[in-house]
Amino acid sequence: MPEDVIKLERIIRAPIADVFDHLVEAERLERWFGTDCEFDADKRSFSYWFISTERDDLDHRAFGTILRLEPYDRLMLEWSDGVFESTVEFLLKKVTNQCTFLSILHNNWTESAAYARMKQQNDWDFYLDNLRRVVEGHGDLRQNFYAQVVRRKSFIPSDDHKN
Fold first, then answer.
1. Which residues of the chain, if any, have pLDDT below 50?
2. Per-residue pLDDT reduced to its tens digit, 28-52
3. What is the 3-state secondary structure (H, E, C) of 47-109?
4. Which residues, in sequence order, are CB contacts of 34 under 8 Å at separation 6+?
5. Does residue 48 have a cis bond before it (omega within 30 degrees)?
């Protein structure tokens, strides 16, 4: 695999549909990822705001186009932070009814994005661990780890994917 590709994997003890929903539903994305999230499959667009409680210069946004949306197997995004553009792909596989394998490939970085790529790898490592924690029913670590503003919108989990 080329060294400009970030590849991370996780096993999450939750049904595949639940994990996928945490990648594509704004309310669920805000439980583990961004401070304010928009994900519009019809318009094929997304945006994630990350807001720090401590420093304005740590606030940033990721946005772009949804390239592929294949429930419950794959999500591919054309990703931009306003400076660098790349591609983020989530791949999911059902291990058992209550266990999902998730991998992320973040690639197509420009040569000038070497520092951003290294930082992004650390960020993805944290956020995938946080996703696993949240989906498995444990606490969100963003506020303590990143001093990230966490907005608590009302969220009622769906029983649609419990089996």
1. 154-163
2. 999 999 999 999 999 999 999 988 8
3. EEEECECCCHHHCEEEEEEEEEEECCCEEEEEEECCCCEEEEEEEEEEEECCEEEEEEEEECC
4. 48, 49, 50, 62
5. no
Q: How many domains does the chain have?
A: 1
Within-domain flag for 13? yes
pLDDT at 57: 62
Range of the structural domain that residue 113 is part of: 6-145
Measured between alpha carbons, how far is 76 from 65 in angstroms, rounded to an integer? 9
Give the integer Cα–Cα distance in Å for 112 and 38. 28
Question: Measuring CA to CA, which residue among 33, 80, 86 is closest to residue 61?
Answer: 80
- Contact criterion met (CB below 8 Å) for 144 and 128: no
CB 97 within 8 A of CB 163: yes
At 152 the pLDDT is 56
In a domain, 151, yes or no: no
How many other CB atoms are there within 10 angstroms of residue 135's CB atom? 22
Give the C-alpha separation, 16 to 156, whole Å: 18
pTM score, whole prediction: 0.86
What CATH number should be reported for the domain holding residue 58?
3.30.530.20
